[in-house]
């Protein structure tokens, strides 16, 4: 359960950002949560998160956004600043999400058996690809997910393109998977299948690119860079928003009974759990502190190291007001995944089991 820059649970930061951008209610809150994750040392994982959200909720409606995101990622590789991140967040915030791909990823995989005579075109493909091609043809999502596992991503991508070119007579611009900086290539392919089956009138080919306001960029950077004195006033000043209470449809780490309660964690073990995020790990390394797994504490070589660390980084989370503490330890009840879909997207959904963690948080 890694803790972030201002001692939020990292998986809850991810999900609160996800909800905030999908609801498009408060742009500043979107910027706040993505910067909380980014500045906690998860720079590259921030891009993986944004790309995962794009392919889950936006790719099949707004395909041209893919090129923009890749372009902004390449800008980030040169500048290593948060502006390209904010630019992508703004594009998502301004558009209406669609949950088709997200739901397709969470439908249980199941083998699909087509009864009756196979279509004539199937004979033009190798026999070993028959099952996958029939699933694609009849848009059987459980079957697609079942058969995807037997392919490497590049062979699968080639097969999907061949099917839509030969059988559906589509003219495709065959981009290279390796040019897209998202590690889950099969996620991209699943989104591609749903996109190519989507009615043309439901696809929005807009090229509009909005630019974050300079005031918003400065605000995000100031939250990260401005030092608060005394140091224990940091959390009251910089914890601007509370973790969402409606993310309990996901299997978040606080539901793991092996972990201490979030209140106990923040009060007694925050240093140990903070040390699992890149930012805090480096801070502890600077003062020669190591984890003691038996006591869930950080052990410093000398009292002098402990004192210097405390002067610079001891936020004293257990001494904060209830208002400040509750922004991370507020109660979150386990919920039904279908209810989360209904609340966000307004559509009926029969899923009941918890969604798995949205992405790795450490």
Can you give keywords for this protein?
362 residues, mainly alpha, two-stranded antiparallel sheet, 18 helices, 2% strand
Uncertain residue segments:
none
Provide the domain count.
Answer: 2
- Secondary-structure-based class equals mainly alpha
Average pLDDT figure: 95
Count of DSSP H/I helices:
18
**Considering DSSP H and I runs of 4 or more, what fraction of the residues is helical?**
40-55%
Query: What best-fitting shape do the alpha-carbon axes yield?
Result: elongated
> What is the makeup of the main sheet?
2 strands, antiparallel
- Cross-sheet strand order for the largest sheet: 1-2
As a whole number of angstroms, the C-alpha radius of gyration is: 23 Å
First-to-last CA distance:
8 Å
* Total E-strand runs: 2
Query: How much strand?
Result: under 5%
Can you write the helix and strand succession as a string? HHHHHHHHHHHHHHHEEHHH
């Amino acid at each position: 359960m890694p803790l972030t820059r201002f001692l939020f649970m990292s998986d809850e930061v991810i999900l609160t950002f996800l909800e905030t951008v999908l609801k498009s209610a408060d742009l500043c809150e979107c910027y706040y949560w993505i910067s909380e994750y980014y500045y906690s040392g998860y720079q590259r994982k921030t891009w993986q998160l944004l790309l995962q959200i794009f392919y889950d909720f936006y790719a099949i409606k707004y395909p041209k956004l893919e090129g923009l995101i890749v372009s902004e990622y390449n800008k980030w590789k040169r500048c290593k600043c948060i502006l390209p991140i904010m630019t992508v967040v703004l594009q998502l915030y301004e558009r209406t999400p669609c949950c088709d791909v997200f739901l397709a990823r969470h439908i249980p995989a199941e083998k699909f058996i087509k009864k009756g005579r196979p279509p004539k075109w199937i004979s033009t493909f190798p026999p070993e690809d028959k099952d996958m091609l029939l699933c694609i043809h009849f848009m059987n999502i459980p079957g697609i997910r079942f058969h995807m596992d037997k392919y490497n991503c590049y062979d699968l991508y080639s097969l999907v393109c061949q099917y839509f070119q030969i059988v559906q007579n589509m003219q495709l611009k065959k981009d290279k998977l390796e040019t897209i900086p998202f590690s889950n290539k099969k996620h991209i392919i699943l989104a591609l299948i749903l996109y190519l089956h989507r009615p043309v009138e439901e696809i929005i080919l807009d090229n509009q690119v909005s630019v974050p306001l300079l005031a918003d960029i400065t605000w995000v950077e100031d939250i990260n860079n401005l030092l608060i004195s005394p140091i224990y006033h940091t959390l009251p000043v910089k914890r601007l928003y509370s973790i969402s209470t409606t993310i309990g449809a996901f299997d978040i780490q606080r539901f793991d009974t092996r972990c201490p309660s979030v209140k106990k964690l923040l009060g007694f073990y925050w240093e140990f759990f903070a040390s699992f995020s890149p930012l805090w790990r480096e801070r502890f390394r600077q003062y020669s502190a190591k984890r003691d797994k038996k006591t869930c504490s950080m052990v410093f070589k000398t009292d002098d190291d402990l004192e210097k660390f405390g002067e610079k980084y001891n936020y004293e989370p257990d001494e904060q007001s209830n208002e400040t503490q509750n922004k991370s330890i507020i109660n979150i009840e386990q919920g039904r995944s279908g209810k989360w879909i209904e609340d966000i997207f307004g559509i009926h959904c029969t899923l009941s089991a918890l969604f798995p963690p949205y992405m790795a948080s450490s």
